[in-house]
Amino acid sequence: MKTKKIKATYRNGVIEPFDKINLPEGQELEVEFRVLPKTPHELTREEKEATQTYTALIRESEGWWIGWILEVQGVTCQERTRSELLDTLQITLREILEDEMLEVSRRTENESEAVKASDILEFGVQDQIKGGFEEVRIDV
User: Fold this and answer.
1) What is the reported pTM?
2) Which of the two ends of the chain, N or C, has the fewest CB atoms closer than 10 A to its terminal CB?
């Protein structure tokens, strides 16, 4: 059985999927609900003051925004818009940091710089000049 995750928002008693769901007529679904962490603009002032800051390296490439967190291995995301990417990076980072089963160690500044250099080189020098990379602070 093939499974697919979809993201949705709950507003005024209605669940609104972000993407259109194409299924054959009569297809049965199993739905599981999980409340995701707040996005940056939903945090209270007290929550913002108790945050840690991480660095995301992001860029637009062929109609998609891609990015990763330099300090934590495994936080890589892709979305259609810059705003969606920043929210997804923050949510993914929070989930990894809050997962009690994972032992997450924060990379040192030197390790982060090494990852940054290797990831930029992966796209090639010409790509870097055309589109460039943007460093963004992500608070969790």
Assistant:
1) 0.54
2) N
